[in-house]
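REQUEST FORM: STRUCTURE PREDICTION
Request ID: SP-0412
Submitted by: Lab K.M.
Chain count: 1
Length (residues): 360
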Amino acid sequence: MPVPAAAEEALAGLAARAAALHAASGGNLLECFAPVPDPGDPRGIRHALAPVLVVCTAAVLCGHTSMEDVTAWVSAAPQEVLAAAGCRRGALGDRIPPHPDTIVGVFTALGAQHLADHAGAFLAGRAGHGPAAFPAAGPGWLPALAVDGKAVRGAAGPDGLIPYLLAAALHGSGAVIAETLTGPETSEVPEFAPLLRRLNEYYPLAGHVITADAGHTVRAHAAFICGELLAHYVMTVKCSTPGLFAALDTLDWASVPVQHEVTGKAHGRRERRTIQVLDAPACVRARFPHARQAALIERYVTRTVRVKKGRRHIKATIKTAVAVFIITSLDAREAGPAHLAGYVRGHWTIEVRHEVALHE
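STATUS: Completed
RESULT:
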């Protein structure tokens, strides 16, 4: 019998979060899944919902990500694993694993979004962030959240197209605490506010910093973040917003000194990042709601690579430079150059981390 697409999507969402849920629960996955309401009819339930989700998570942690592999692993799971998961006892006292049809039915009934919302709420509750002070008394670090969309590599929806997820992840840990399936990549922007509005119900975002790439640098998002969520934004500005980009590009950056610089060496490359910050002038404020500061970040990378020259391989040095504009609702009293550079770096780190995870 073919597995419904809804079941595969729900399992894929669980697989993406399995390690984070296991770590956040301290290994007690029963506690993690206990609050999930069972969608089944109570009169026909033979297996409680939480143990079914626990054994499936255990299968995923063992490297099984398809529904066929997960159900096969669960059916052959040893008694000690079934006991730890809380599976029911049979007439002879042995632990009974849930039938493959039961597992498929559970994931079909739950659905990907319902399971993702619960997992996000659990991870958010374990994040350890208290209410953020708002407004800030002085420059300092505020809890930050990155909103980023990625294609799920190797997956395909019922229409054969690659699904896209829009996710909200905590800076630092990278834990995804909210996500939604958006369909085509162009559908990310309309889902931005609903995703954060739903997250705000169980994880208040007031006083937080929301970081986003250039695709979400739109006036409506800025107004929503500052007006409804009472949060702040740090956004990248590219040619996708030509008027704002031109306004930032014409500023006299040559007269603005470098106010913060970070250098590092890793993976065979040397990197130097600088940031210049100034108060957003009237021409920028008129184009973007709540804009308080603008920044120019430049990134210089030097790599040593081996290239073929004739019959020999020689070392060659490659230098690259990238510059981006940043716009933020944080004023100089709330965030200095080092803080803005850190928020941007945190967002880039999460982008790379999620890109690697989705490729895997």
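NOTES: The mean pLDDT is 85.
Reviewed by: T.R.
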